[in-house]
């Protein structure tokens, strides 16, 4: 996985283009929360065909400031819907974003993305110790965010951390 030091792997069923790009955009910026359910169904279909070791779903957290602006975290919506379909528990109050970072889309290269996001996440407790965690996000660009989340999860004892993003930009 190149420079990804902490995450065990990243999977994404779709490319971030066309209809999928529009759907994620609607979910993320147009308050179309109802899209989380059909999108999660696509993720479940992908997991059935490509099983990943997971006991717990953890959405990539947003900083409180951005959460207040938007009113919801689209990754959490996806994780909740996927949790219903897979019967996997969702833990959304353990991994937290402690630093407000500029949007990754505005950073120019992988090195910049890494330094932008490094140490932005922390686990509040050791609830995920020895667990196989599946991180849920909407779009994976360089993988830097997922990797930074994995670093925090592993620092608090997670056995394995895989990333599952709805779409990838590359």
Provide the fold topology.
Elements: E1 9-11, E2 14-15, H1 18-29, H2 36-49, E3 56-59, H3 64-70, H4 74-86, E4 95-97, H5 110-117, E5 121-123, E6 132-140, H6 144-155, E7 160-168
Helix pairs in contact: 2-4
Structure description:
- The protein has helices spanning 18-29, 36-49, 64-70, 74-86, 110-117, 144-155; strands spanning 9-11, 14-15, 56-59, 95-97, 121-123, 132-140, 160-168.
- 39% of the residues lie in helices and 19% in strands.
- The strands form 2 sheets. Strands 1, 2, 3, 6 and 7 form a 5-stranded parallel β-sheet that branches. Strands 4-5 form a two-stranded antiparallel sheet.
- The mean pLDDT is 92.
- The protein is built from 6 helices and 7 strands, in the order ββααβααβαββαβ.
- α2 crosses α4.
- It is an alpha/beta fold and 170 residues long.
- The longest helix is centred in the first third of the chain and has 14 residues, at 36-49.
């Amino acid at each position: 996985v190149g420079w990804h030091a902490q995450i065990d792997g990243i999977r994404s069923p779709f490319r971030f283009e066309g209809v999928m790009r529009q759907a994620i955009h609607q979910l993320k910026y147009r308050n179309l929360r109802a899209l989380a359910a059909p999108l999660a169904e696509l993720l479940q279909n992908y997991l059935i065909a490509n099983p990943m070791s997971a006991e717990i779903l953890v959405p990539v957290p947003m900083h409180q400031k951005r959460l207040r602006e938007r009113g919801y975290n689209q990754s959490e919506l996806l994780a909740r819907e996927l949790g219903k379909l897979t019967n996997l528990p969702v833990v959304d109050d353990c991994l937290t974003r402690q630093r407000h970072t500029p949007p990754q889309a505005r950073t120019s290269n992988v090195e910049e993305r890494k330094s932008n996001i490094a140490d932005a996440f922390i686990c509040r407790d050791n609830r995920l110790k020895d667990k196989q965690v599946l991180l849920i996000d909407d779009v994976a660009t360089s993988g830097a965010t997922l990797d930074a989340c994995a670093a925090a999860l592993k620092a608090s004892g997670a056995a394995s951390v895989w990333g599952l993003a709805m779409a990838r930009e590359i």
